[in-house]
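Quick one, tokens below. Sequence please?
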């Protein structure tokens, strides 16, 4: 992060790195676009892993937007926001695992070719975002949550491609469901990591002093 400007910056409001802001805007646009692509492709292909990845893109776009909003706030508020983002990541994991169980019961076999084509596009999009975010991966809980989302996305994209290959070779939807379940577990694991770090930062933050009472002097 850049140093405070001459003239004095507030100690509890760190300066905003303009490079990080630009990266977040790029990531927001890319993830919003890929959410639409994977949502339509997932429904068309009948793929749980693609739908799970689409929901992940939507969640990431929201997370990037939240991160942009809290950039100029005090560290304690950024950590509190990371708590909410961690809870969202955990909810995503639960949703994906539940969807996989639902499709397992119905015996859906997705379209492998559609899965593969969209998986390649998603991997390229997340690769670009990950490359831009790499330099900021060791920041506070808020920055870490952004990096973990992108890292998990790339892992999920590779897994979707492997699932597409498995579906194509086996003619079964089980590889798709297995990959979707792994993606759900990754979401739960990342959520725990973000929540633990955010709670630690909140506990270490200095307490905000209460304002001194205003005493009015009575006129004689």
């Amino acid at each position: 992060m850049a140093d405070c400007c001459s003239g004095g910056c507030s100690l509890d409001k760190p300066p905003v790195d303009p490079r990080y802001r630009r990266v977040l805007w790029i990531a927001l646009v890319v993830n919003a676009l890929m959410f639409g692509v994977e949502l339509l492709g997932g429904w068309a292909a009948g793929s749980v892993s693609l739908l799970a990845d689409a929901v992940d893109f939507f969640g990431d776009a929201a997370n990037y937007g939240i991160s942009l909003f809290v950039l100029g706030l005090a560290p304690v508020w950024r950590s509190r926001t990371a708590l909410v983002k961690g809870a969202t990541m955990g909810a995503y994991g639960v949703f994906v695992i539940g969807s996989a169980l639902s499709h397992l019961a119905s015996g859906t076999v997705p379209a492998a070719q559609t899965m593969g084509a969209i998986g390649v596009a998603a991997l390229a999009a997340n690769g670009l975002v990950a490359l831009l975010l790499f330099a900021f991966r060791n920041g506070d809980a808020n920055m870490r949550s952004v990096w973990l989302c992108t890292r998990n996305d790339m892992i999920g994209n590779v897994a979707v491609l492997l699932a597409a290959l498995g579906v194509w070779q086996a003619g079964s939807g089980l590889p798709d469901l297995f990959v979707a379940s792994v993606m759900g577990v990754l979401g739960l694991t990342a959520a725990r990591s973000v929540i633990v770090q955010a709670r630690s930062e909140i506990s270490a933050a200095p307490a905000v002093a209460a304002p001194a009472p205003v005493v009015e002097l009575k006129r004689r």
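Residues 1-15, 208-218 have pLDDT under 50 and may be disordered. Helices lie at 18-45, 48-70, 75-106, 112-133, 141-170, 174-204.
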